[in-house]
Design brief:
Length: 508
């Protein structure tokens, strides 16, 4: 379908899928209420809303995973009743879920045809050729013979999309598809979606990321509190308006107030190295962060940022160099010594590294305390209740088990613990990944408040908007080295992107 033909289809109205007055409740909790949704043939349509707004539930209803309590679904103008995802696929409706549904021990080709009654033996040249051909057609490059367990998250997502294209879906739903992708993979995904839509297929992008909506969607439907509050053409709106629709109020996602001025050197890393025999190495990193400033560490995931953060936090022992916090040498002394010197750490892996998912909120808030209160004691629960209120954690109370919380509330618990300890140095990694607009606003405001109170903050993030919105200085990490340093005020975005891709090696 040419660009002119696609524009004509979108403007003329040619619904591929419709939902009218859809309602769904789980155990009395309303997930969708009187929802109307229309998807045109050949369009990329963003379904936008905060976590818990009802987006994923609507996608699941429209592809057969859930059945609505009320309302009607029409495919190409005809009413249908979808009793299962198999029914959805029979009507050429498919969904790639946020958590992939792949068998890790199987090959790519086996996963693509799994559950298809038309296929005979898994291992056949015809099958491998067919999967490879699909991948080449849409630039979804994946080896059909590769084992899924050996693939990156971005490659696994491609397998899920190939699965849907193999089933010849006309409507493809993707639930938070960029949550696990690096910026280059996001750009590649958007190119794939445009290619799919250009063929006359329809794509629904379920997301809470405003930038993605503006970058790739033709139209956007906004949900809030289980209801649709607006449906507009992307060209007729902007991120500020969409954020207001999502939250119901004005939102400030870039609360830059500037540094308090050049303060004393609070965090110093000198010639920091990490042996790379088994993983990404770190080479000769020099980093100084002063009181009252945020230094953003930009870079594509896997270039040594995780290792740098863990060395600064005392979790890893560097093979060379030294780390000073408030003038105290904490090199190789462990995380307890780093905390005693005044360093707080918010890791990227919130449940795997930051918190104990099987323990309560109150217990997690005491995990790193120098003198922890008695677990389950009245004082510990009283303090936890106060932190729950201060940090806006949505929970039943201090005894709520952390793994039962949403991602945004898990992050609020982690931030409550680390930011309430009075640390003069904060190392934070991907602090808003997976959070909705309200959560992002809250976290960025907290970091800004601590910066203005005199904290020295290392912000490691793949979200350049976040770095530009918060940081005073930016360093770029590539292949384990700091290859560029610049102030935000004088930053050249092109040079920054080249440095992230390894094309600039100026050194800080």
């Amino acid at each position: 379908m040419s660009a002119t033909d696609r524009s004509r289809v979108l403007e003329g109205g040619n619904p591929a899928l419709e939902g009218h007055h859809l309602g769904k409740a789980f155990a009395g909790v309303i997930a969708n209420a009187d929802v109307d949704f229309t998807l045109q043939r050949g369009e990329i349509h963003a379904l936008l809303g905060e976590n818990g707004a009802g987006k994923s539930t609507l996608g699941a209803i429209l592809t057969g995973l859930y059945q609505p309590d009320e309302g009607t679904i029409l495919v190409a103008g005809r009413p249908v009743w979808l009793r299962s995802p198999r029914d959805g696929l029979a009507h050429r409706l498919g969904m790639v879920h946020q958590h992939f549904h792949l068998v890790e021990a199987f090959s790519v080709a086996e996963n693509v045809v799994l559950g298809d009654p038309r296929q005979g033996p898994f291992f056949s040249r015809h099958l491998h050729g067919m999967v490879a051909s699909l991948g080449e057609r849409y630039k979804l490059t994946v080896d059909p013979r590769a084992r899924v367990a050996d693939l990156s998250l971005g490659e696994r997502q491609r397998v899920e999309i190939v699965k849907m294209l193999y089933r010849n879906v006309d409507v493809l739903f993707l639930d938070e598809p960029t949550a696990v992708l690096t910026p280059p993979e996001v750009a590649s995904l958007f190119g794939i979606l445009r290619a799919i839509a250009a063929e006359g297929r329809s794509v629904v992008l379920i997301t809470h990321k405003l930038g993605e909506v503006m970058a790739v969607a033709d139209r956007v439907t906004v949900m809030r509190d289980a209801r649709v509050v607006a449906s507009v053409d992307t060209k007729d709106t902007d991120p500020t308006s969409l954020a207001r629709l999502m939250v119901g109020r004005d939102v400030d996602l870039a609360p830059r107030h500037g540094a308090t001025g050049p303060g004393r050197r609070v965090l110093v890393a000198e010639d920091l190295c990490l042996d790379g025999r088994h993983e990404r190495h770190v080479e000769h990193v020099d980093l100084v962060v002063r009181a009252g400033e945020i230094v953003g560490v930009a870079g594509v995931a896997g270039n040594g940022q995780l290792q740098l953060a863990e060395m600064l936090a005392g979790i890893r022992q560097p093979s060379a160099g030294r780390i000073l916090v408030n003038g105290v040498d904490i090199t190789g002394a462990g995380p307890r010594a780093a905390r005693a010197a005044g360093l707080g750490y918010v890791p990227e892996d919130r449940l795997g590294t930051g918190l104990a998912p099987g323990l309560s909120i109150a217990d997690n808030l005491q995990l790193t305390a120098e003198r922890p209160l008695v677990a389950g004691g009245r004082r510990a629960e009283s303090e936890a209740t106060a932190m729950i209120a201060r940090f806006g954690v949505k929970a039943r109370g201090p005894r709520e088990i952390v793994r039962r919380l949403s991602g945004g509330n898990v992050q609020r618990v982690l931030l409550a613990r680390e930011l309430s300890a009075g640390a003069q140095v904060l190392v934070v990694a991907s602090p808003t990944r997976g959070l909705d607009v309200s959560g992002i606003e809250f976290v960025r405001r907290l970091l800004d408040e601590h910066r203005r109170a005199g904290a020295a903050i290392v912000l490691i993030s793949e979200d350049l908007d976040e770095i530009f919105g918060l940081a005073d200085r930016i360093v770029v990490m590539y292949a384990g080295r700091l290859v560029l340093e610049t102030s935000v005020a004088s930053c050249d975005v092109t040079e920054l992107g080249l440095a992230m891709a390894g094309a600039v090696d100026a050194g800080p």
